[in-house]
Amino acid sequence: MTTPIRVSVTGAAGAICYSLLFRIAAGELFGPDQPVILQLIEIPPAMKALEGTVMEINDCAFGTLAGIEIADNPEDGFKGTNVAILVGGRPRGPGMVRADLIKMNGPIFESQGKALNKSAADDVRVVVVANPCNTNALITRSNAPDIPKERFTAMTRLDQNRTAYQLANKAGVTVNDVSKITIFGNHSNTMYPDIYNATIHGKPVTEVITDHDWLKGDFISTIQKRGKAIIEARGKSSAASAGNAALEHVRDWFSVTPKDSWVNMAVNSDGSYGVQKDLIYSFPVRCDGKGNYEIVQGLEINDFAQEKMNITQEQLLEEKGHVADLID
Ligand code: NAX
Q1: Pocket around ligand 1: residues whose beta carbon is below 6 Å from it?
Q2: Domains within the chain, CATH numbers bracketed
Q3: pTM here?
Q4: From ligand 1's centre to the CA of 130, what distance in Å?
Q5: Would residue 187 show up in a list of annotated catalytic residues for this protein?
Q6: How many Å lie between the centroid of ligand 1 and the Cα of residue 124?
Q7: pLDDT at 204 over 80
Q8: For residue 112, which of 81, 73, 153 has the smallest C-alpha distance?
Q9: 160: alpha, beta or left, given left = phi > 0 and alpha = psi -120 to 50?
């Protein structure tokens, strides 16, 4: 029998996981022939709710699910894990600014980094979804010194997917016709969706969409503020679309990226495009099917793009400053 892959997920009783876990259990991460064991992590007050989610997953009788383990602490929950998806965190409360959220969530990722370092399998790959996800990933990585830096990522796939939809909708084509979208920087309202290297039906986006004011203005702010717009409409934050993006992030990390295309993940900066080394910054990447990736090189960065890339880098440096005590 094929050895099951162990997938740990934090925040397992929350809204995103209510969509994500069922799809992992159904085999959508590694295909129908690869069994998975779910290792679900919550905080003690949410364990009862988690038990309910587990009952429902079991009631789906998924053939690819080889087992579920639950834990109320990260050390047990990350034991032997091959993939860790860090969704759990405290939400931003009324009157809180981003800096408050960063400081409040920081210690969670400090302890989860330490637990990953101690308990995870040697080949572990980590993606942080919980916001502020780039900086939380930086904290997690800094507290797991035995795990290679490249294994820590944060999720900007939702921004990529949102961009694909907006461009396709504007051009009157399907998302399958849109390729080579780039997401640079922080998953926040400074994130920069670059379309100057993207194509529609193989042609530059700027040739197909001639409303360049829209491309430079409303399009970018729509992507940057999409999360807020969803909260305003639904009364709750994005959940199913975020769960889908987390699934696609991990699935594509373990897949061979098709030629002439790329995907976006916030990863350890190696200095590409002048981004400060060791920041967790979103780049376009290509994956080799074995859990490794390379940052796509040689993209043309015009002045407009450079300015936006600098703004989002500044915000990441500021966030890093807020958590300096957790990353030294
Ligand atoms: P919920 O509040 O529904 O669920 C969060 C869960 O995390 C709760 O069940 C809570 O008990 C649990 N939790 C809290 N601290 C924990 C800890 N130390 N260990 C384990 N579990 C813990 O939030 P949900 O809607 O699921 O969103 C989760 C996170 O995703 C939030 O931080 C949110 O900001 C972030 N998002 C990130 C996105 C991205 O694109 N990167 C988009 C969607 C989403 O906003």
Answers
A1: 10-11, 13-16, 41-43, 46, 87-91, 108, 129-131, 133, 155, 158, 187, 227, 237-239, 242
A2: 5-154 (3.40.50.720), 157-322 (3.90.110.10)
A3: 0.97
A4: 5
A5: yes
A6: 21
A7: yes
A8: 73
A9: alpha
Distance (angstroms) between ligand 1 centre and the Cα of 145 equals 25
Distance CA(294)–CA(210), nearest Å, equals 32
Q: Using CA positions, which residue lies closest to atom 6 of ligand 1? A: 11
pLDDT at 94: 75
Residue of the nearest CA to atom 10 in ligand 1? 11
CA of 91 to the centre of ligand 1 (A): 7
In ligand 1, the atom with minimum distance to the C-alpha of 50 is 9
Query: Using CA positions, which residue lies closest to atom 42 of ligand 1?
Result: 242
Q: Is 271 left (phi over 0), alpha (psi -120 to 50) or beta?
A: left
Task: Please name the helix (run of DSSP H) or strand (run of DSSP E) that holds residue 193, with its range, or none.
Answer: strand 192-194
Cα–Cα distance between 160 and 157 in angstroms, integer? 5
Whole-number pLDDT of residue 221: 93
Rounded distance between C-alpha atoms, residue 197 and residue 199, angstroms? 7
Q: What is the pLDDT of residues 154-163, one digit of tens each?
A: 999 999 999 9
- Tens-place pLDDT, residues 105-133: 999 999 999 999 999 999 999 999 999 99
Alpha carbon nearest to ligand 1 atom 35, residue: 130
Nearest atom in ligand 1 to the alpha carbon of residue 130 is 32
Give the helix/strand (H/E) hosting 67: strand 65-71
Residue-wise pLDDT tens digits, 70-97: 999 999 999 999 999 999 998 777 777 8
The amino acid at 110: E
pLDDT at 95: 77
Give Cα 247 to chain centroid, integer Å. Answer: 9
260-286 pLDDT tens trace = 899 999 999 999 999 999 999 999 999
